[in-house]
Amino acid sequence: MSTDPRQVLDDSAMSRLQYIIVGLTVGLNALDGFDVLAISFAGPGIAAEWELGNAGLGIVLSMELIGMAVGSVLLGSVADRIGRKPTIMGCLFAMAIGMFMVTITSSLTELSIWRVVTGLGIGGMLAALNAVTAEFSSRKQRARMIAIMTIGYPVGGVVGGSIVTNLMQYFDWRVVFYFGTAVTIVFIPLIHFILPESVHWLARKQPEGALDRINATMKRLGHAAIEQLPSIEEAARKVSTSFLFSRAMIATTILVTAIYFLHVVTLYYILKWTPKVVVDMGFPAYLAGEALTAASLGGALGCVFFGVLSTRFSLKALTIFTFAMAWVFTAIFGRAPAELGTIKLYVGMAGFFVNAGIVGMYAILANVFPTHARASGTGFAIGIGRGGSVLSPIIAGFLLEGGLELPGVSLIMGAGSVVAAFLLLFLKLDSSGSSQGAGSKEEDEVGEALGKPAPA
Question: Into how many domains does the chain fold?
Fold first, then answer.
């Protein structure tokens, strides 16, 4: 058996602690899912309190998305520099502070600032979580574990949405953020005491004390200690995020980022505008929350669907299929009659395929970027891709404000997914899901980045 701890984890059956770690990432992703939707649940109440029109509300809905975009890019690279665990801890603190401060704001400007702070934490969390899940999973189970992790996002919307929908019958919109703050704080000690630093990251970066930290974690995972760290050249250990734009990776980086961007336009149209659309049809705000919960429930089922089929079908083909169906059901949602059961069915199906497509993209991102650039690569793709999440509610708001009817708006906002499906045809993946354009061997990729020939 290999003495490289990364290969041991890749090739061995997963231990109980590894499954617990994946479970933690599910919970953290659920927290992210709820935090992102929090402003959507609170949106109708905020619009009423500050007398906002559709265009103004669209801007407010986008504030934490701006923070997410910046946080994913900046904090993803931080996770590759200082480690996965400290980045996640810092993100949790930022999210807790941002969520609480929203409840005591006295102006829309203050509210927007604190939503940006919350978004910074969410964005960094997403980049780090994908890396943690990939690096604590075996090679055989990696795609499935990423699918399970991704389920947390819509589950957070379902569970959190169900709770706050009931609470909002008795309290104003601020109760959404009180609830989010409390749950965020609960995760801080759980991560501190349970989550070890990634063995893959420690073996690659080799900071002071790396060998002892790796052996402590390997013991917790049920594996033998190693006698020495893997041999990695100093230059390779210090490869920066510029590697993403090296000759070996630039085409892959740009392509996956564009694909993610376009699909996210569809996702955030559904997540951000469903409550307002339902309220505009004459339903009370708490019933609008039920419609958004239906989208999240459909999304959770979509993640399960993708996880089950990921071992039977091509990752690329399955992702393309879910993208195309996301567009179809987003367009159908736009034609829903003012009948709550039908609205929930249509938005649930849209959520099913949109979130299944997100699972596919997370699995692709985890495979196309190597360990030393996994969080920064994922963070870059998510961060720039979140530009789609920022633009989506704003564009939809101005389209609606400009007089375009809901069917036309939904057709336009869902088109991002079908264009993403077309672009995905050009991403070459091997049978394991790795990008052929980027190279399947990590050391070869690093060698390319450093201007060295790959080993024969």
Answer: 1
